[in-house]
Amino acid sequence: MKKSIFIGALAVAIAAGGLASAQTLDDVKARGKINCGVTEGTLGFSARDSEGKHQGFDVDFCRALGAAIFGDTDAVEYIELSSKNRFTALSAGQVDLLYRTTTWTFSRDVDLKTSFVGINYYDGQGFMVPTALGVSSAKELDGATVCIETGTTTELNLADFFRVNSMSFTPLPVGGTTEAKALFEEGACDVYTTDASALAGVRASLKDPNAFQILPEIVSKEPLGPTVRHGDNQWEDVVRWTQNALVAAEELGVTSANVAELAGGTDNPEINRMLGSEGSLGAMLGLDADWAVRAIAATGNYGEIFERNIGENTPIGLARGLNALWTQGGLQYSPPFR
Which of 9, 143, 257, 301 could form a disulfide with 250 if both were Cys (CB 3.0 to 4.6 A apart)? Predict the structure, then answer.
């Protein structure tokens, strides 16, 4: 009898989520900071500045979370991870999430027991070569030696592309961006392949960027976004809706400059709900009413983050492209704040 009571109580607890998952938001609040997994150093996305502080597109999304939860963009510890060890670190609880140019795929979502909670950059795999190699297309790379990071989607994409085009290549496996950049710059490989956005960041950080070119071919879909552990819906919601708030803010005309004023109330009910002057969306997340106000004030909206870190007026020089708002021909789109 006691056994059946215990089993029944266990089932109720699991159904309620009490034993099914760790409460990451509670852990984060108790710790006083977010442990955010980022790249080892990809200029524009996550790299240390001259003072040793992390800066970049992905870093700003972590900073927005710090502002939303704590009102402090510095309440984040950045843990640099290679492509090879990022999922192990997430599963082991070393980090609370990855904002690390990580591609959403079926096997990563399902088999690795991680949850992708949004797409902050629509990307695709490209190829970078020395200009002196004298090629203008990836279809001219037959017999090339290719630097490729292990533990990434680029390995299979590379093999597929060369096979379809009846070409051969010699892979030079590397453990991460730092190693790949060094080997490529010293000429150990003819080609470096990874996400095109990361190639732009690496190229901008080389001693002579003009000595290298990114070829025109994009050979895959690489939807990049934040990743958390399976089984903690509240933490998923906090990460997802903080990112959504930054995207929605751009669409609704909410910026770092005007968010404080708009937080007092507007004629637009969706702005009011998002910024907390109406409704109780913050409480649903386990946060207060001003969570989105703080996030937007700290980093700006999605467009501000993009232009500041990787836009056309930065050394990275990326156009919005697919990452424009859906109202401007792109794919960036937030579900309604309702």
Answer: 301
